[in-house]
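Aim 2 progress update. The chain analyzed this quarter is reproduced below.
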Amino acid sequence: MKNLLTRVLTGVILVPIVVGALYIGGIALWLLLFAILVGAALEANRLIELKGLIIPRFLLVLAIVVFGIGLFAVGHSLFMGMLMVLSISMLILLLIPVFRQASDIPSENIAEILSIFLFLSIGGFSLWFIRIYSFWDIIFYLVLIWIFDTGGLVGGVLAGHHKLAPYVSPNKSWEGLFMGYIWATAYVLLAKLIPGFRNAVKGNIWVMIAAILVMSTVAQLGDLLESVWKREAKVKDSSNLFPGHGGILDRIDSVFAAAPFYLLWIIFSRGLPF
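Predicted structure tokens:
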């Protein structure tokens, strides 16, 4: 009961901050996203170190800081944003021989930094442009992920008998996954009745439902990916930053994983400029 109260109180504080930054957009959104990205990079660094890997401590955080500054600089240019992500990724790859020669750091460790950078940068990049296209689009997307996660939790508690990934996340179940699908589908149908969300779900409803199920699956994979990181580091949460909720990575895993797919849906379903 105490843990539930702590989770609710933390949510009451965080939700208005996030929604406010999303509504204002511009510099407020960038500051929020930049803080999330840097905080997540620091948590990821900690998880890597807990696994006993030797890494250049500053590399991941520096790459994310450069990306965050670049994201604000590219503004509304989707093409330039993608080019920036690829350029920084290429730079990390090019630094591999330098670090190997200087510190005898295995290439696998640099590859892990690159994979985490791609996860954070592509997810953050996608959320940035979803908000540029529409405030209601990003609210619709965030509520979708929350409803899918909540449906999965309820389904797992009520009828979770078949483990989804027992060696990665023992609490996840196939029943919970399908309950999440049901809740996400119901949400899409109900969203047509909400004035602000009508543009987010316009078009062929069956195609939209199929797209939402794909995004929900990817969101679940993002959650499992972060569970792998934590299991390998032998920790329950990525940090204790948010009482009752864990760390930044614990909050953004599903959201960042599925965001590129929702961005692609927006672009191709509405014929928006690339």
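The mean pLDDT is 85. The two ends are 48 Å apart (CA to CA). These observations will guide the mutagenesis experiments scheduled for the next reporting period.
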